[in-house]
Amino acid sequence: MRFLNRSAGRLSRYRRGPVAGLLLLLLGLGLTGGLYQAFSPAQAAKSDTQAMQVEKGRKLFLVGCSFCHGQNGQGISTIDGNQLGPSLVGVGAAAVDFQVGTGRMPMAQPGAQAPRKKVVYTQDEIDAMAAYVASLGPGPAVPAAKDYSVEGLTDAERQEAIVRGGQIFLTNCTACHNFDGAGGAMPRGGYAVNLHSVEPRYIYEALLTGPQNMPSFSNGNLSPEEKRDVIAYITSMRETPSYGGFTLGSLGPVAEGLFAWVVGIGGAVGFAVWIAAHSTRSTKKKAEVDA
Amino acid sequence: MSIDTSKVAESNRSSAATAAKPNRAGSVALWADERLGLGTAMKKNLRKVFPDHWSFMLGEIALWSFVVLLLSGVFLTLWFKPSMGEVTYQGSYDALRGIPMSEAFASSLHISFDVRGGLLMRQMHHWAAMLFVASMMVHLLRVYFTGAFRKPRELNWVIGSLLLLLGTLEGFTGYSLPDDLLSGTGIRAADGFMKSIPVVGTYLSFFLFGGEFPGDAIIPRLYIIHVLLIPGLLLGLIAAHMLLLVYHKHTQWPGPGRTEQNVVGYPMLPVYAAKAGGFFFIVFGITAVMGGLLTINPVWKFGPYDPTKVTAGSQPDWYMGWPDGALRIMPGIESHLFGHTIAWNVFLPIIVLPGLMFTILAALPFLESWITGDKREHHLLERPRNAPTRTALMVALMTFYGLLWAAGGNDIIAIKLHASINAITYFMRVAVFVGPLLAFAITRRWCISLQRHDEQKLLHGYETGIIMRSAEGGYSERHLPISESAAYTLTARDDDEVYVPETKVDENGVAAPVGRLDALRGKLSALWFADNVQRPTRDEIEEARHHFEHELEGGHDEHAALESSESVKH
User: Fold this and answer.
1) Nearest of A84, A179, A114 to residue B183 by alpha carbon
2) Which domain holds residue A162?
3) Residue A169: which of B414, B188, B215, B99 has the closest Cα?
């Protein structure tokens, strides 16, 4: 105790010295940082796994994607100036999650448009590749479930969201995806996909990143709430019953014309044949065969 | 009028005959007859004879769907508001509540969701309209392919063509009324079509819209055209069409007992009244089933019209599809004259082409009678094969129409068949010219082959399917003569007469040159009938018959055995 008292007394002699405040501040900061570092192992582990995830993603990328997108995701140009695969710097994790998560990437073959097909990677692997591509440059992140869900809104708010979303849908989406989201044709074999069964998460990511022929609807263009509203409208259309009966594919007047001719005229002519074949004097017995 | 009939004999037996007491319907008919004289007027028409064939009922589909249109249309007018005044929707359809829209669109939604049976009526009305135009076209094809448009029925053909044109316009004005996104897009397109007409286009557009598009007059104007003007014209023309039918009497297929002077068939009452009346209920039933089960024009999904919006798959109804197809495949050609643009890429496919096609359609009977020089009356129908050029001409026109029709749905074809819309467009640009020519050549040769087949049946009999083996070991198929009535039916047609321009010889014996038009006519006539197979002459048929008899008489035992086995089979 005595010793302690003495040393404290000796220290306190400098307590009004010119550098004491600075030293104390540095000591405090050092202690805080050191303690934080020492007592938060979870954070340390996460930071480790993030690096590991990026590394895992890079390995997967080198095997599955680099052939077209380049070993550093920089894209590869062919000699005549076309792209074998575009640069992925800055496309963000959302683009990877969309393209690989829907099976569009890796592509089976070059063509007008990569179709949705069987997914070949697990979600963990997709997350790893997304992390790697996100590390190449800043880009849109994978949206959280609350971004595209109307959970938590009151019924009235949800209804308002659907009405707003419907108007946004008719303004921005129907020109290619058709009034019911049944899809439409794009130049040279491209197409706007049928939205009837696309998951909200992928719709949101498609809006963010603008895959293939689709323009991207950045947050400055359609705010996150507006994106959510459009998704609310699209999913509400799936839940609404088809008031008029069978939808005939929701393709508009071409399908209607087909049905008018095949079912309507086909049926009416069939009945005309039936009526003409039955008269007061017609019998079941077939008339003599006169070839 | 009451005569005491109690003393009149009831039969040729001993007791007297008395008239049975009239039943209730009879007494009503008698009451009406005594006051209106209906019996005399109806006596002839109720016994009017119509020939029986399924293809003669195709026009009836059009007639009955028109009746369905009148009935369902009247229902719709009770709620529809033809106004472009802006209101805020407050009806039952959730996804549009609170959206500003025209009264026309709001009332369409009201009919669809808040009027009992309204959506069914809307859909029935629309399906019936599709059937109306479609059945007119099917009827038109039947009339053309069987030669029923020939003298004296040319004017009825023209009336029918007018009905088709008016039906199409009636359809367009009708599906433009709800003022939804699709119909508004259609009106906007129509505005562009009008404006493509050189010089007068913009004036026409301003006249129709009462100013710049869209204005606030177009829906009320289309409405009065749709519910009063065109239906009135349609009714009048349908009446004229049917009066002429009664006056000309119905055509019939040739056959034993059927001549140019008679009509063989069943009387109006009771047979045709029942058949036609029943057919009305069938057509009504078909439209009701379609209206109840198949969505047509779901306006609530399109939303109110707004010039800033458009939807993929924006097509007109099917009967406007072929000019739309022409528009889609037309290359973008424009000229600029004194600061004005002439949009040939719009004007040619959508204004000139339909006008030209309609003129050709209405002129077909006159064109044919001019080429063939046939001015005789025809009440017996011709089989399509016996007029190969006529048949081929219509098939070529149908091919042209069909290809343009398909081009009108190029985007739907592209997504459903995974094709490139550009490739479809390039293909169609060539196909609309090559396709009809190919179709013409193929159909014509096909018809001539069928004629040859008929000739073979007449002269060599029909193939029995019985294979005979001769003593030498060779195989042959046995042919038997066709029946008398079948032979009569096959030969009941006119010989083709090629028109030969008359050459006038003046007093010096010098032939005057044939006029250029007349020479063309002669050439066309020769081409028209070229390679046709004429029916066999009497001598040829006699010879064939003699040949058959000889074969049957001189037949070996096997022949007789085969024949008897065949008769057993029958």
Assistant:
1) A179
2) 143-245
3) B99
Is residue A95 located within the same domain as residue A159?
no
Shortest alpha-carbon distance between residue A239 and chain B (Å) = 12
How far apart CA A126 and CA A56 sit, in angstroms, is: 10
pLDDT at B15: 62
A264 falls within a domain = no
| Cβ–Cβ contact A256 with B under 8 A | yes
The count of CB pairs under 8 A between chains A and B is: 227
pLDDT of B557 = 44
A265 chain-B contacts, CB cut-off 8 A: 61, 131, 134-135, 138
Low-confidence ranges of chain A (pLDDT < 50): 287-291
Three-class SS of chain A: CHHHHHHHHHHHCCCCCCCHHHHHHHHHHHHHHHHHHHHCHHHHHHHHHHHHHHHHHHHHHHHHCHHHHCCCCCCEECCCCCEEECCCCCCHHHHHHHHHHCCCCCCCCCCCCCCCCCCCCCHHHHHHHHHHHHHHCCCCCCCCHHHCCCCCCCHHHHHHHHHHHHHHHHHHCHHHHCCCCCCEECHHHCEECCCCCCCHHHHHHHHHHCCCCCCCCCCCCCCHHHHHHHHHHHHHHHHCCCCCCECHHHCCHHHHHHHHHHHHHHHHHHHHHHHHHCCCCCCCCCCCCCC
**pLDDT tens digits, one per residue of B454-504:** 999 999 999 889 998 989 999 988 888 899 899 999 999 888 989 888 777
pLDDT at B10: 60
Asked if this assembly's ipTM is beyond 0.90, the reply is: no
The answer to whether residue A240 is domain-embedded is: yes
Residue A160 lies in a domain: yes
Are residues A216 and A241 both part of a single domain? yes
CB contact under 8 A, A272 and B54: yes
The total number of structural domains in chain A stands at 2
pLDDT in tens, A243-268: 999 999 999 999 999 999 999 999 99
Task: Judge whether A148 lies within some domain.
Answer: yes
Instruction: Verify that A151 and A214 share a domain, yes or no.
Output: yes
CATH of the domain at A159: 1.10.760.10
Q: Does residue B141 contact residue B381 with C-beta atoms inside 8 Å?
A: no
Q: Are residues A219 and A171 in the same domain?
A: yes
Low-confidence ranges of chain B (pLDDT < 50): 555-570
- The last residue of one of the domains, among A115, A142, A169, is A142
pLDDT at residue B182, rounded to an integer: 95
Regarding whether A73 and A120 lie in a shared domain, the answer is yes
Give the pLDDT of residue B14.
65
Query: For residue B488, how many other CB atoms are within 10 A of its CB?
Result: 15
Between positions 216 and 255 of A, the ones with CB within 8 A of B are 233, 236-237, 240, 242-248, 250-255
Q: Same domain, yes or no, for A157 and A234?
A: yes
Q: Does residue A237 share a domain with residue A155?
A: yes
**pLDDT tens digits for range A52-79:** 999 999 999 999 999 999 999 999 988 8
Q: What is the pLDDT at residue A211?
A: 92
Question: Of B94, B135, B296, which is closest to A265 when you measure between CB atoms?
Answer: B135
- Of the residues A101, A117, A142, which one is the last residue of a structural domain? A142
A228 and A196 together in one domain: yes
**Considering CB atoms only, which of A183, A244, A288 is closest to B295?**
A244
Which of the residues B412, B420, B460 would you substitute to probe the A interface, choosing the one with the greatest number of A C-beta atoms within 10 Å? Answer: B412
